[in-house]
Design brief:
This protein is of the alpha/beta class and 458 residues long. It folds into two domains: 81-90 and 118-283 and 433-449, no CATH class; 294-428, 3-Layer(aba) Sandwich (Rossmann fold), CATH 3.40.50.2000. Helix content is 38%, strand content 9%. It contains 17 helices and ten strands. It has helices at residues 2-6, 17-53, 81-84, 88-93, 120-133, 148-151, 163-173, 194-199, 204-222, 225-229, 251-256, 310-319, 336-342, 358-364, 401-410, 413-424, 439-449, and strands spanning 136-138, 187-189, 234-238, 258-261, 277-278, 299-304, 325-328, 343-349, 368-372, 391-393. The protein has a five-stranded parallel β-sheet with strand order 1-2-3-4-5. The chain has a five-stranded parallel β-sheet with strand order 7-6-8-9-10, sandwiched between helices. The longest helix is centred in the N-terminal third of the chain and has 37 residues, at 17-53. It is globular, with a radius of gyration of 33 Å. It starts with a helix and ends in a 9-residue tail after the last helix. It is a single-pass type II membrane protein. Belongs to the glycosyltransferase 47 family. Keywords: Glycosyltransferase, Golgi apparatus, Signal-anchor, Transferase, Transmembrane. Residues 130-407 form the Exostosin GT47 domain. Residues 77-115 are annotated as: Disordered.
């Protein structure tokens, strides 16, 4: 082979031999050079890929810090952080106050984590992230503010039919979700209380719209935060039905801001399902819910209330003389709680608004709610599967309601509904110091779902 290779040039004519020699030498140099650069490229690529996997190399973040308001955030008229959030560390650190969701079981005894939820496992994962990360900036006011009664939490325990509004503010004020740093806030809270404005003689029902208009104008003048998004990352909370018209002079609030309201009818203008959120109207109760098993509930269904809607008139006129469905035109002379405890199903019928406290009443006393309120965007509808613990009927179904409820009992479906009622009770209870998964945390999660995922610079 060596002799054959050596004699190869002799086969060429003499004039081509120098050319071939130069070409072979050039090709050899080119191969050496290419191999060297290929080795450098492979080595560099390996190092870059390794660093990327370890999280060292990342694309640059396009987040610009928020500009500060015209007045310093921590100066007058703002509240010092220690007074704004006195229980923050206690709220985060007290593990004994956590109330884990119970493991749910199917009919065959196997664990079923999604019976009362649309997707329980996803909720639990996202809830944990919310509890760890979410921050709310509450427009602050001093205690000597002329409208401190409207803008600050109550010192006393909330009470009455519209206590949900006050409970939320009181719980948020003492929670770890509150921040004094607006640059880290996911949402901005407009802290005015519609219920308090309604009872304030300086404002009253007739002056609420003007008060809200002036308040929003003030914050847009002093702070840059509203103007960045047109109010889309702002929210307010209202439980009284007056709140539905309170924003009529401030259309940006109605159209852009998140409205957390009890009167959540998607049939009426001003409420936008998925942008806005429904908060349950709950009569405050401090005691634990009573235990009363299905075997002790002998009445099929129960309703009592004033006749302030066609739906209620229709319901009572249809079933007033029935022996299994107990309906009453007014308040009972006997304790309301006794009828709730004796009944399998408790009827929530629309009044002036789609919402009443009757759903919360029913759940507290272990009674399966029957919802007769067309177009009602039910509380926590993003999270809970209402069909698993309630019976939602159209108003047109009132004549066949008895047949529907009887079939639920005959088929054993009622027992499943009752079990799930007991599982969701804690989501419909308020506490001055919030407890995991209670009404406060559920409303916070609804806000978490509606937060903006993009930070917008000024």
């Amino acid at each position: 082979m060596a002799a054959s290779g050596a004699s190869f040039p002799s086969l060429l004519p003499p004039q081509f031999r120098p050319v071939l020699k130069d070409s072979v030498q050039g090709l050899f140099c080119l191969l050496i050079t290419s191999s060297f650069f290929f080795f450098l490229y492979s080595f560099s690529s390996t190092k870059v890929g390794t660093h990327h996997q370890e999280g060292v190399i990342h694309p640059p973040k396009a987040v610009i810090p928020l500009q500060q308001p015209q007045q310093a955030v921590h100066n007058s008229p703002f509240i010092p952080q220690e007074s704004l959030n006195p229980h923050a560390e206690k709220d985060r650190g007290d593990d004994n106050r956590e109330t884990p969701l119970p493991a749910e079981r199917g009919r065959d005894g196997s664990e079923n984590n999604d019976d009362a939820f649309h997707q329980r496992s996803l909720f639990m994962e996202d809830y944990a992230e919310m509890n760890k990360s979410m921050k709310i900036y509450m427009y602050p006011h001093k205690k000597n503010d002329p409208f401190a009664n409207v803008l600050l939490p109550l010192d006393s325990e909330p009470n009455g039919n519209y206590a949900s509004e006050s409970y939320f503010k009181k719980a948020l004020y003492n929670s770890h979700f509150l921040t004094n740093d607006p640059s880290e806030a996911h949402l901005f809270y407009l802290p005015f209380s519609i219920a308090s404005l309604r009872h304030d003689k300086r404002v009253g029902v007739a002056g609420i719209q003007t008060y809200v208009k002036n308040y929003v104008q003030d914050i847009t003048r002093i702070y840059p935060f509203w103007n960045r998004t047109g109010g889309a990352d702002h929210f307010y909370v209202a439980c009284h039905s007056v709140g539905r018209t309170a924003m009529d002079k401030t259309l940006q609030v109605k159209l852009n801001a998140i409205q957390v309201v009890c009167s959540s009818s998607y049939f009426l203008p001003g409420y936008v399902s998925h942008k806005d959120a429904s908060i349950p109207q709950i009569w405050p109760r401090r005691d634990r819910p009573p235990m009363h098993p299905p075997s002790n509930r002998h009445n099929l269904a129960f309703y009592a209330g004033t006749m302030n809607s066609r739906v209620r008139e229709y319901l009572v006129n249809t079933w007033v003389n029935d022996s299994e469905i107990s309906v009453h035109r007014d308040r009972l002379k006997t304790p309301y709680s006794e009828s709730l405890l004796r009944s399998k199903f408790c009827i929530h019928a629309k009044g002036f608004e789609v919402n009443t406290a009757r759903i919360g009443d029913a759940l507290y006393y272990g009674c399966v709610p029957v919802v007769l309120a067309d177009h009602y965007d039910l509380p926590y509808a993003d999270i809970l599967n209402w069909e698993s613990f309630s019976v939602v009927l159209s108003v047109s179904d009132i004549p066949i309601m008895k047949e529907v409820l009887r079939e639920k009992v005959r088929s054993g479906e009622y027992l499943r509904l009752h079990r799930n009622v007991m599982r969701v009770q804690n989501h419909f209870q308020w506490h001055s110091l919030p407890v995991d998964y209670d009404a406060f945390y559920m409303v916070m999660y609804e806000l978490w779902l509606r937060r903006s995922h993009v930070k917008i610079s000024t």
